[in-house]
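Progress note, project year one: complex with calcium ion.
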Amino acid sequence: MINPNDKNLPKVDVEDPAASEHVKVSRRLFLGGSAALMGAAGTMGAGMGGMLTPSVAHASTGSANVGPGELDEYYGFWSGGHSGEVRILGLPSMRELMRIPVFNVDSATGWGLTNESKEVLGEGHYLNGDCHHPHMSMTDGHYDGKYVFINDKANTRVARIRCDIMKTDKITTIPNCQAIHGLRVQKVPHTKYVFANAEFRIPHPNNGLNMDDVKGYYTLFNGLDAESMDVAWQVIVDGNLDNTDADYTGKYAFSTCYNSEGAVDLAGTMRAERDHLVVFNIALIEAAVKAGKFIKLPGSDVPVLDGRKGSKLTRYIPVPKNPHGINTAPGGKYAVANGKLSPTVTVFELAKFDDLFADKIKPRDTVVAEVELGLGPLHTAFDGKGNAFTTLFIDSQVCKWNVEKAIQAYKGEQVDYILQKLDVHYQPGHNHTTMGETRDADGKYLISLQKFSKDRFLQCGPLHPENDQLIDISGDQMKLIHDGPTYAEPHDCMIVHRSKVKTRKIYDRKDPTFAGTVAMAKADGVTLETDNKVIRDGNKVRVYMTSIAPVYGINEFKVKLGDEVTVIVTNLDQIEDVTHGFCMVNHGAQMEISPQQTASITFTADKLGVQWYYCNWFCHALHMEMRGRMLVEPA
Ligand code: RUQ
Ligand code: CUA
Ligand code: CA
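Model obtained:
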């Protein structure tokens, strides 16, 4: 047990000159809060002695070393792939800071088990998900720290994470289509829309009467209102949709298509020499919705517009076969489509899209370069200094190239546009630079996400982790500085300077995530902050209790066999990091209750006798003793 007053403790430097105001303030408060806790709970304090030694963050570029107690410079938001979650990493250390359950069930926090999370997940929700593309909301092309959005390819959903509490607060199932893959946000003037590609073409109507009329299949490009998370409109397209991105004027979004062939078999998707980039004109789409020029599909009330070839709302730009990633350069002069089956990247000059929609130029006139980089280009990131970094899946390399030089070379000038190729291990998919999808690209670090780790780590059986590599790009040459094994599957990530993210230290009692539970308590005549009460309502029993380390407000209660029991816990602790848990043994019920949060869980009392419940988030020296009994009496 560490005594904070011990003079032999290392001297604590609370002020970090490099830290954001937020970080400084939260450290000061944390220290104050801990001291108060120590006082309140005597020397048995909350088992937090080790956390009393914060130190200075000196994360200099060139090293992934962030010492014990030092803070990282960047937040990384990692998609958790088919684990269905989002993870927060600190960069450059690559330490995993937090997991945010989204489409998955999480035992530790009770996500998918609590009533509050079930409300977000929706009735009859699936227990799996497949996240690919996390992207933060923006204002004028800068991250605004408000939300992170993420797709679910597995069950055709889009979720939103609130960055102040780092929890999922909305999930929308997209109607009339299958498999949301590409996802990006509108960058300018602000994230009014989240753009989401449905990948798989399906029959319409999909009523079980048609499999073979493949020509009649189609899929949809979706615009979600970022605030309400309702689908604002859907656009029918030719071909399928893979990845998407938006420009820096707010006028356009664009998506790659690998299946212009409309094939349903692998070979068929590779038949044509060219597929396309579909460009969506947001203003024209909004005008068409306003003018009522839409249909509705049987699955919903959402306006569905026709954006197939010949439509005014879209343009189709031919690109070499089966393109994959589409990435807008910081500031928005160019976007780059990545060839995948072609060794090339295609560079579009976005200012030309106005003329394209005015029919003053042909689709291919927007292409200012189409140059070879190597085998299997999948995604491109930017340093904000005119250079691009493209993953080469088949070559297992990252290729650094200069965009303006590539344009010159495409014009026939003798210039070397490829600056360096760096081996990565092995087979990279996405990559991402620090702040690289915004106007604030700072060219410090590049993350390359490899699909295979093979021999890079200790073996853990046939299933291997993937390998996320950190590359220093601040100098002329890329330098590999860290390997990070990760569990399935960081398709993609985004990296945000810590100054952009301001999180709450404890919950606001008015937080909307438990507003439904507050309303339920009100109807029961219960004040959550003060009352410890058992309310019986037929065979439904609601047990309202508070928690303050290390005790629950109710140590014992009685129910009848077969009762449906809801336990509602309100954590009255006001000290940062003192989270309690509630677990009813042998009932599959477990949840997190962070400071000032209310959480609830419902289960059936299907076992006679004494049933213990306990706190399972370590909160105090007497955490083991934080427990109580439910007596289940014969009905
Ligand atoms: S995709 S490996 Cu799901 Cu983002 Cu490119
Ligand atoms: Cu409360 Cu552990
Ligand atoms: Ca194709």
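The longest strand covers residues 142-152.
The radius of gyration is 27 Å.
No further modelling is planned for this target in the current period.
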